[in-house]
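Researcher: Structure prediction, please.
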Amino acid sequence: MSDGGIAVVVVAYNSEETLDECLARLRAAQGVEEIRVVDNASRDAGIDIVQRHALADARLRFIANPDNPGFAVACNQGAAASTAPWLAFVNPDCFIEADTLARLREAAASQGDALVGGVMRGEDGALDAAARRRDPDFAAMLRSRRARELSIPRDPAAPLQPVDAVSGALMVLPRSLFARIGGFDEGYRLHAEDLDLCRRVRQAGAMVAVANEAEVLHVRGVSSRARPLFVEWHKHRGLWRYFRRFEAARRGRITRMAVFAMIWGRFPLAALRAALRR
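Model: Predicted structure follows.
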């Protein structure tokens, strides 16, 4: 199964700045049988870029949503519109190398049943902390600021490092595993859906890991710069949904109320900072 074809799902929203390079790299990538670009009602020239690539490569098909139903919905649409035995989810601002997806597939296959991500660096060379994370513990976050730091250090002795979660910007897994857990939870609009997916993969008895020797460039936040308030709102909403799904049932009422206040109390400041960065 390690040499089975890969179906790549790319969810685009106003991604013209990076989409052309992303698709060119995917078309040149080893093992790719299908490319599905799902566009969430972009208002830029992204559709022209996708059409040009689709005319040049029969593996690429385009799904245009009339509105923006969210990242999780679009990922599931792309997966459903493909048939290859392996699935790769790649953000349009993620630039893979020719062997990246094949290496992630090989790493996942070596574990029998696994979801594997890669190491991501920004344009400034800084590591993307979201590539290697532990599960959030919201009750612990109430007591300690250190608990709010989810990133996990790289284990130099582990080419394939088990972790709680990897980033949804780059992940590869068997289609059979994705189907078994029901795909992405479409109750999330933006953010935390990757944490949710990884947790359910582990609950299903499979491994989540990062391939420490597979590194890509991730130009973060390209599509979210134009709507900072929208993004921050759904980020906080996603965190609250994650808490309710995985932690709230084992916490008392006071703790649940405190977590609600912690999450939503940060929203005005986070929204202001996002607006100023824009």
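Model: Strands lie at 6-12, 32-40, 60-65, 86-90, 94-95, 114-121, 160-162, 170-174, 207-218.
Researcher: Thanks, that helps.
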